[in-house]
Amino acid sequence: MPAAAARSSTAALNNATLPYVMALASKGYAGALRDNPHFRDGLSVHARAVTHRAAAEALGLPFTAAQEIIGG
């Protein structure tokens, strides 16, 4: 589909991702993780801890909530 509508698909992708890029640029990764639950939901591993429950269960590793590591 993107090949059929290259300009509009590029604009749509830009509109969907730009707010996240701007948050990362202005707050840094730690601030963006603290302030945005969507960033935290996408986090799988941080500081040697598995922060995604399903991944931890599948791998037989302990789960650590992202909030415990980064605060917030």
Main features:
72 residues; mainly alpha; two-stranded antiparallel sheet; 4 helices; 6% strand; flat
Q: How does this structure look, described?
A:
- The protein has 72 residues and is mainly alpha-helical.
- The chain has one domain (6-70).
- It is built from 4 helices and 2 strands.
- It has a two-stranded antiparallel sheet.
- Strand 1 (45-46) and strand 2 form a beta hairpin.
- The protein is flat and about 45 Å long.
- The model has no long low-confidence stretch (mean pLDDT 91).
Beta fraction of the residues?
Answer: 5-15%
> How are strands sequenced across the largest beta sheet?
1-2
Radius of gyration: 16 Å
Distance between the termini: 39 Å
> What is the N-to-C succession of helices and strands?
HHEEHH
Mean pLDDT over the residues:
91
How many β strands by DSSP?
2
**Which percent range fits the helix content?**
55-70%
- Helix and strand content put the structural class at mainly alpha
Can you tell me the residue ranges where pLDDT is under 50 for at least 5 consecutive residues? none
The number of helical segments is: 4
Shape: flat
Count of domains: 1
What's the story with the biggest beta sheet?
2 strands, antiparallel
